[in-house]
Records
---
Amino acid sequence: MTVFEMEGVLRGKAIPADMKVNESLAAYLVRKLADAEARGVEKLADAWASIAARDDGVTKSESLILKYQQRADDARAFAYELREGRA
């Protein structure tokens, strides 16, 4: 959404194309912000998973690898809860 489109939405002159039926503007904005936050958390989870899986010549203990994998799993679970509106 561009700034111009957002101005129209906030002034009541336009309706977002992906707005659900009977959804208020406040609920729409909360849903979109939660979705954006979930995407950021998923990127963080991917980064932690890649750190755990990377073989860069640095010896990592098994507990460190498990810690990064657990962080990635926790982040993915949190992202799912954000998308479902439970967080």
---
Amino acid sequence: MQEAPTGSADRSWRTLRSAPDLDSVMLGRQTVFYGTVIDEAQLFGQLARFRMLGLLVTEMRPLPY
């Protein structure tokens, strides 16, 4: 599942640390998180973390197998 929250460049380090169980890559002004989300509880936990940081999730999708 990919999560691409947007945020300013000065918050990039905090953004990267906000999801320690996901890998991430910076693409311009966006951070793309990727990795395995095992259940709804983990998914909603990640979304809550992003919301607390004021980040906007612009896209989520399952990764191809």
